Amino acid sequence: MTPKARVLVVDDSPTMRGLIKAVLRSDPGIDVVGEAGDAMEARAAIKQLNPDVITLDIEMPDMNGLEFLEKIMKLRPMPVIMVSTLTHRGAEATLAALEIGAFDCVGKPVPGDPTPFGQLAEIVKAAARSQRHLPDTAASGQAAHTHSAPSDYQPSRKIIAIGASTGGVEALIAVLTKFPANCPPTVITQHMPSTFTKSFAERLDRLCAPKVKEAEDGDRLQIGQIYLAPGGERHMEVANTMAPRCLLSEGGPVNGHRPSVDVLFDSVVKVAGKKAVGVILTGMGRDGAAGLLRMRQAGAETIGQNEKTCVVYGMPRVAKELGGVCHEVPLNSIGEEILSLTTTTSRKDRVA
Asked: Which member of 17, 85, 101, 121 has the greatest number of CB atoms within 10 A?
């Protein structure tokens, strides 16, 4: 029998603590062992209760959630789920938390929300199961802010498609900061709230040599450009109308997600076939696994992040079990692996 996930709830609002506790206690696989209203109370509770997982409010008095998270990750690393307002300011703070090492983030509910914290229980249980650790310096986002691509890199006529979920912020930073300014056109679906994707794209753009943007409907795929699917009500696909472009399409959730990695990968199969590289990174569930298999069956090269370096070995595990992974690679080598599969020394194959 799987032991219950033992959770400490940290939030300065008694109302919010009560709501989080009620949501978590409704799941038989979770035991809320305590609560705290600030960092000092939380520190004492951690020592006394030794929880498996912490939910942590970003905005707290005295010491905010980011400062407290840094101390946790340095002194007593454990899975921490950040609870944030779904605002631009909240998005910036949450992205910083994910880079520091937070397991995942959830948005605080807004008035009229029929299912407040709808995915929180599943995230907590995944966090308790994970072998969460601070990434080593070679794989961490902070250490990956240098551009190490070969100076003679020449892109082949390929499209790179990447899917990620829980743990994807630091994973994408580690991968994309290895890309040169003339990388092949790259499309990414990262499971993330709609208010966060624009801030994340801006953050990546500051860190990476290529240009990074939140994708817009009709964006033409170009060398040196990375397109991040906007969170929200539409899927991102690649369509070939005279030239490959981003298409933001309507449709219900696929594998519980919108945008869905499977939808992106399936569109790349139709447009690029074997002239593509598919990459599946850390994440809960199975979104993208079947699509990666279809990419491989179409002749594309495919990469899966290995178990040891995943925050959650879910999506890559299912992709591997289905036979969709050609190359299983640790996070700190995925950038170089992608470049080796998309370079050419043949002049006729180079993209102007």
From this structure: 101
**Contact criterion met (CB below 8 Å) for 212 and 226:** yes
Cα distance between residue 277 and residue 158, in whole Å: 7
Tokens of 340: 């080796």
Q: Please tell me whether residues 182 and 326 are part of one structural domain.
A: yes
Domain CATH code at residue 58: 3.40.50.2300
The verdict on 191 and 111 lying in the same domain is no
Q: Is 191 annotated as catalytic?
A: yes
Is 287 designated active site?
Answer: yes
Among residues 165, 199, 260, 267, the one annotated as catalytic is 165
The token pair that represents 34 in the structure block: 């305590």
Secondary element (H or E) of residue 300? none
Each of the 352 residues of the chain gets a pLDDT tens digit; together they read 778 999 999 999 999 999 999 999 999 999 999 999 999 999 999 999 999 999 999 888 778 889 999 999 999 999 999 998 866 677 888 889 998 989 998 888 877 777 788 889 999 999 998 854 444 433 343 444 555 556 689 999 999 999 999 999 999 999 999 999 999 999 999 998 888 899 999 999 999 999 999 999 999 999 999 999 999 889 999 998 789 999 999 999 999 999 999 999 999 999 999 999 999 999 999 999 999 999 999 999 999 999 999 999 999 999 999 999 999 999 999 999 999 999 985 444 444 3
Q: Which string of DSSP letters, residue by residue, matches 13-42?
A: -HHHHHHHHHHHHTSTTEEEEEEESSHHHH
Catalytic site residue from 57, 140, 287, 333: 287
- Say how far apart CA 101 and CA 80 lie, in whole Å: 8
Active-site residue (options: 191, 266, 267, 333): 191
Long-range contacts of 326-329 (CB under 8 A, 24+ apart): 326/296, 326/301, 326/302, 327/301, 327/302, 327/303, 328/303, 328/304, 329/303, 329/304, 329/305
Q: Are residues 68 and 190 in the same domain?
A: no
